[in-house]
Amino acid sequence: MACTPAAQSREATTVGRLIQAWRHARKKSQLALSLQAGISARHLGFVEVGRANPSREMVLLLAGALDVPLRERNGLLLAAGYAPIYRETKLGAPEMEHAGKALQLILEHQEPYPAVVMDRHWNMLTSNAGALRLFGQLIALPSGGPPANILRLMFDPEGLRPWVANWESVAEALIQRVHREALGGIPDAATVSLLEEVLAYPGVPKRWRSPDLLSVPKPCLAVEFRKGSLAMDLFSTVTTLGTPLDVTLQELRIECFFPANEQTAESVHALKRGKPKNGPLTN
């Protein structure tokens, strides 16, 4: 006798539900995913409802076809009863020496323009001297404590927010990015909590809570800083490390700022005073 949808739902294994959730997040049908993975749609359906237990290789095959982030691939393996295979290494660990040098070179080559390195929760792990000079002109940067968080700095009335002339467009673009980038489409609990926190700040439009109500994103994020005689118009790009095999490296984001006009370029060069070492930003 055929199972009813309700019975199938009760029988569905954790890994099957997770695979199905990622398939929905990627807007793929069972047929499309099965063709991409080279398996039958019938077998995929059995995996999703718990009538078939996927092998370790099958879990990795489907995760690859769905472009699931490495952290979440480990979660899929655990849910299926297998050990995780992707490491999460501290950025300062000896085995991350080459990655650290690469980040250092990127930051140094961006000088005198600002650049910061962030983790998946928008915490700024390190920066170049250009970022320290610019942000130091706008807000106090205390030493020690947890790393500064770019979302909190941009939304907090006591952070960078008062000094961003086009704050509403910048803030909306950041919220769009959170919705779009959060773990490849499925936000984790920490990201959801951070999003709720910044959306609760005064003056934040309620419509930003829904990705469908946000404005069409622009190709580049333009930021206009204004404070006293300081006036800088910048735009930013975000870079990720290609084909990483470590959770930490995959989740790094390198945001580089560039002058939007010649006046800003001249102001950045004029602001340069000495060459402080790259270091963390804290709040």
Structure description:
This protein has two domains: 5-79, lambda repressor-like DNA-binding domains (434 Repressor (Amino-terminal Domain), Orthogonal Bundle), CATH 1.10.260; 94-271, Beta-Lactamase, CATH 3.30.450.180. The chain is elongated, with a radius of gyration of 22 Å. It has 283 residues and is of the alpha+beta class. It contains 13 helices and five strands. The chain starts with a helix and ends in a 12-residue tail after the last helix. Helix content is 45%, strand content 11%.
Topology:
Elements: H1 5-11, H2 14-25, H3 30-37, H4 41-49, H5 56-65, H6 70-79, H7 97-110, E1 115-118, E2 124-127, H8 129-138, H9 150-155, H10 167-181, H11 189-199, E3 221-227, E4 230-239, H12 247-251, E5 253-259, H13 262-271
Antiparallel strand pairs: 1-2, 1-5, 3-4, 4-5
Helix pairs in contact: 2-4, 2-6, 3-4
Mean pLDDT: 87
Large-scale geometry: elongated
Query: Whole-Å distance between the termini?
Result: 62 Å
The number of helical runs is 13
Along the chain, the helix and strand elements come as HHHHHHHEEHHHHEEHEH
Count of individual domains = 2
Enumerate the spans where pLDDT stays under 50 for 5 or more consecutive residues: 1-11
**SS-based structural class?**
alpha+beta
Total number of beta strands? 5
Q: What percent strand?
A: 5-15%
The percent range for helix content is 40-55%
By CATH reckoning, the class of the largest domain would read Alpha Beta
Q: Please outline the major beta sheet.
A: 5 strands, antiparallel
Q: Over all CA atoms, what is the radius of gyration?
A: 22 Å
The CATH topology of the largest domain: Beta-Lactamase
CATH architecture of the largest domain: 2-Layer Sandwich
Order of strands in the sheet with most strands? 2-1-5-4-3
